[in-house]
Design a protein that fits this description.
Blueprint lengths: L8 E5 L5 H12 L3 E3 H9 L3 H8 L1 H16 L5 E5 L6 H8 L1
Length: 98
């Protein structure tokens, strides 16, 4: 019997800490969708997160991250990987708590 996921699980940590690896495995086990907020931003912007930070600035990247996380959390019972700095933003922290 597979446990039924009823709300999002958000994985937060530093780059390279294994969030995506664990998130994908967890999503498969729970039969849920997996999303990586950095990957979504990179796909939409056509640049790496590092390049977005360099060319458009930290504030722009923080705003995009907030929008993407908010959007993904509306998808329901999913697994979401976010960057370690995302929790610094009080709006993001509050969205994750809900």
């Amino acid at each position: 019997m597979v446990a039924k996921l009823i709300k999002p699980i958000v994985l937060v940590g530093m780059m390279g800490s294994g969030k995506s690896t664990i998130g994908k495995r967890l999503a498969k086990k729970l039969q849920a969708q997996f999303y990586d907020s950095d990957q979504v931003i990179e796909e939409r912007e056509g640049l790496s997160v590092m390049d977005i930070h360099h060319y458009q600035g930290k504030e722009y990247l923080k705003q995009e991250e907030e929008k993407v996380i908010k959007e993904i959390l509306r998808y329901g019972a999913i697994i979401l990987s976010t960057g370690g700095e995302s929790l610094i933003n009080p709006e993001v922290r509050n969205m994750i708590k809900e």
